[in-house]
Amino acid sequence: MLKLKLAGTKVTDLPCGGISVWYRGTQVLRIEDKVMTLQHGGHTSPTIMKRINRFLPKEYLVYQKVPASRSTWHISTPSGETLPFLNGMTFHLTQES
Predict the structure, then answer these.
(1) Burial profile 21-33: b = 16 or more Cβ within 10 angstroms, e = fewer
(2) Domain segments of the chain: what residues?
(3) Which phi and psi (to 5°) does residue 88 adopt?
């Protein structure tokens, strides 16, 4: 079982070998059965972005373009693609992720 202390954060190992990350009542990341779901719950704070990035597979990165409004997030993928971050977006992970 993953043991970690981060303020306001709860990390749970799932029975299928996946992970669930909650920050202040919002499930910000879930990886289960090779499907990854990302959410910010309408709160696009730097802390939520840090929590998501901490647990993302290493080939992914959530970031803001500068200069930009705080609410504009993007995600880069293993293929090099950059997508706008959409609350509740999902990715199908490959074996390498």
Answers:
(1) bbbeebebbbbee
(2) 9-92
(3) 90, 10
The dihedral formed by the CA atoms of 4, 8, 13 and 15, expressed in degrees to the nearest 10: 160
Of 73, 83, 77, 88, nearest to 29 by C-alpha is: 88
The residue with tokens 């990341």 is 29
Contacts by 78-83 with C-beta closer than 8 Å and gap 24+?
none
Whole-model pTM over 0.90: no
Beta bridge partners of 37: 30, 90
d(CA 68, CA 81): 19
pLDDT digits (tens, 9 = 90+) for 75-85: 999 999 999 99
pLDDT in tens, 27-44: 999 999 999 999 998 888
The whole-chain average pLDDT of the chain stands at: 88
